[in-house]
Write a structure and sequence with these properties.
alpha+beta, Lipocalin, 2 domains, 9 strands, globular
Length: 167
């Protein structure tokens, strides 16, 4: 009898939790992209970006025209002419400035966390990241003597699709 009561109790708790989750307003439901700013920024960041400028220690760094940054919901990938490297990232758009964490895993099982801030305005994405173990940047700047790197990226338009059906 105790077993039956425990089972009914667990089922009732699970049912209450599911009912409560379904009753959340769409704007705050974690799986509804509507007005949820994190899902909004994640969706807007997806795609391919080219470097408009890169500042490291206050100096402009040359980036070859073909270098790109490809962003998926959980990966940020550097695409060079002959190679690629990528790392996981997370964002928190509720902060001011918005926060981004990079999780770079050079040694499997031992990710390195680099703290960053980001700004997404239309087709311009700015990311200011610092070295591992250092405090998160407070401003979008890179000065002589600090380890901040500032990227200004522009969205690469998606290639138009053609109708191959002949109509």
């Amino acid at each position: 009898m105790d077993f039956v009561l425990q089972h009914v109790g667990r089922t009732l708790i699970a049912l209450i939790a599911v009912t409560a989750a379904c009753g959340l307003p769409a704007a705050t439901h974690p799986n509804h992209p509507g007005e949820n700013s994190k899902a909004g920024d994640e969706d807007k960041m997806r795609g391919t970006w080219k470097f408009e400028s890169v500042l490291e220690q206050g100096r402009e760094q040359h980036m070859p025209e073909q270098n790109r940054v490809a962003i998926t919901p959980d990966m940020l990938k550097m695409v060079y002419a002959e190679e690629e490297s990528g790392w996981r990232y997370t964002i928190d758009p509720s902060k001011d400035p918005k926060e981004m964490d990079w999780l770079i895993e050079i040694d499997p099982g031992h990710p390195i966390r680099q703290l960053a801030i980001y700004s997404l305005e239309g087709d311009t994405l700015r990311i200011c990241v610092t070295g591992a173990g250092l405090p998160r940047p407070a401003k979008f700047e890179s000065k002589q003597g600090d380890l901040n790197m500032l990227w200004v990226l522009k969205r690469v338009p998606a290639a138009p699709t053609t109708n191959r059906s002949g109509s």
